[in-house]
């Protein structure tokens, strides 16, 4: 809920004051005239509408009334007003000067890849506002913000983030996601919009590991290496697609691999490759399952062995000529007359009787029209 680790007032107090022991609550925190910020707020609440001298109330503070940020009593409610009742507006920041892509000059290739740490950035010491890459990025951010209607605070946060990232930028460097994420997140700045600007000017490199890769690595752990290669190739083909196959939904890949993972772990203890799996092994696993679980497992195994057969890693598909079978639905049981009478007797309100009548009409089969009419009439009465 907060843009950073604390609210704006606490962040300001944390930077400007030094920790010491509070004269009221005895906590070692940042102080203002000998008292912590929570004690000042509590004394202000206790003295509300009475006096403006806070010292007597600060000495009597025995508890702290907590509150959600931005929901407590504002210090100056209402919009600021100037002369003759006219509202005063905050001065608008000047638009950045037009800038274009810097002309590439001589480039010194780096000897090795080094990770930069932007968390130590200090604006007063390290900011270089005359950097041509920074000027081009700020001009690009201004145009994108005008096109998408970014609020004022968003434009200011993006400008601060660009100063942190591009003050020392030179031609040929790239900015990685792992380098700027800790610095921007700790300051409460927008990472997503900053990355959008960096990607537009061509200096961003996404080094994040996709969640699918991490999940696939966990699911393949413990499976024999020969089986793992075929399963990994099959799962990636389902997820990414291929020359003659469309990519499946990510949830489908998850469900497929989660379904057969116990089977693959059991086979890994006995075999080193999928070509060693026989038809009897498949039937043995299917005999332990029933209903929709057996049907789903057989469908997934057919997909796995079919892909392995096409890629040439196995010679024979052990799931061929194993029938999936039709899905067996539950048998509809008719209601006995005493059950219908008990339901009608339990309904007391007219609206409930109408719902019961509609349910009886739509739930009855074609051969039970007489009983339906009598039931509807009884429910309506």
Structure explained in plain terms:
With 381 residues, this protein is mainly α. The protein is built from 16 helices and 5 strands. The protein has helices at 8-16, 37-46, 55-59, 123-126, 132-148, 152-166, 177-186, 191-200, 211-219, 225-240, 250-268, 279-287, 291-311, 337-346, 350-363, 369-380, and strands at residues 19-21, 28-32, 35-36, 175-176, 204-205. The strands form 2 sheets. It has a 3-stranded antiparallel sheet. Strands 4-5 form a two-stranded parallel ribbon. A hairpin with a 6-residue loop joins strand 1 (19-21) and strand 2. Helix 10 (225-240) runs antiparallel to helix 11 (250-268), helix 11 crosses helix 13 and helix 15 runs antiparallel to helix 16 (369-380). It is extended, with a radius of gyration of 35 Å.
